[in-house]
């Protein structure tokens, strides 16, 4: 005959020291609950900056002028942070654009198309045998293109002439 024994598991809290400190007990805690200490409130530089910015905005909204400390900070930050030449060139090109809405739309749709194409390529890359096959096709096409357009001087000259003509049609000038 098999005998069964039943045992119950009980968990009791003890007053052992943790890291040399006695555990804190609240008057509302029961033996089954554990009270965790509260985390300290952290302030960061970003929070202080946001408060200062909100103060400056309120001052500008009510008086129409920025506080003197905000003006001095803004002037100092502009003098210290010089824009790179690339950014200046980009700003000048953006100022010359007449249809900013169309250019912005093309940029957004180009980004979406790039994101979608990376998804398609990663899906194809996960298929068995397809990546290896596409790599072999790419290597073969590169070899054929180099043989046809780059190996022999007359073919190379014709290819360079065609590239320059295409460049001239797109840009409008040649270098």
TrEMBL record:
GO cellular component, one term: chloroplast thylakoid membrane
Biased composition (Polar residues): 25-35
Residue span, Cyanobacterial aminoacyl-tRNA synthetase CAAD domain: 88-172
Residues passing through the membrane, by range: 101-123, 129-147
Key words of the record: Membrane, Transmembrane, Transmembrane helix
Subcellular location field: Membrane
Short name of one Pfam family: CAAD
Membrane topology: Multi-pass membrane protein
Disordered: region residues: 1-36
Comp. bias (Low complexity): 1-17
PANTHER family, sorted: PROTEIN CURVATURE THYLAKOID 1B, CHLOROPLASTIC, PTHR33222
Protein name stated in the entry: Cyanobacterial aminoacyl-tRNA synthetase CAAD domain-containing protein
């Amino acid at each position: 005959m098999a005998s069964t024994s039943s045992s119950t598991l009980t968990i009791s809290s003890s007053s052992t020291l943790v890291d040399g400190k006695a555990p804190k007990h609240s008057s509302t805690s029961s033996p089954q609950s554990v009270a965790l200490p509260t985390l300290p409130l952290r302030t960061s530089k970003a929070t202080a900056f946001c408060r200062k910015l909100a103060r400056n905005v309120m001052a500008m909204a009510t008086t129409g002028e920025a506080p003197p400390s905000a003006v001095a900070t803004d002037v100092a930050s502009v003098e210290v942070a010089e824009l790179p030449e690339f950014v200046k060139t980009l700003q000048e090109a953006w100022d010359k654009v007449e249809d900013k809405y169309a250019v912005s739309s093309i940029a957004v749709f180009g980004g979406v198309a790039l994101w979608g194409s990376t998804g398609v390529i990663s899906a194809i890359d996960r298929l068995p045998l397809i990546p290896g096959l596409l790599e072999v096709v790419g290597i073969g096409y590169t070899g054929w293109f180099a043989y046809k357009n780059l190996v022999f001087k007359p073919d190379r000259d014709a290819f360079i002439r065609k590239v320059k003509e295409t460049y001239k049609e797109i840009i409008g000038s040649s270098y």
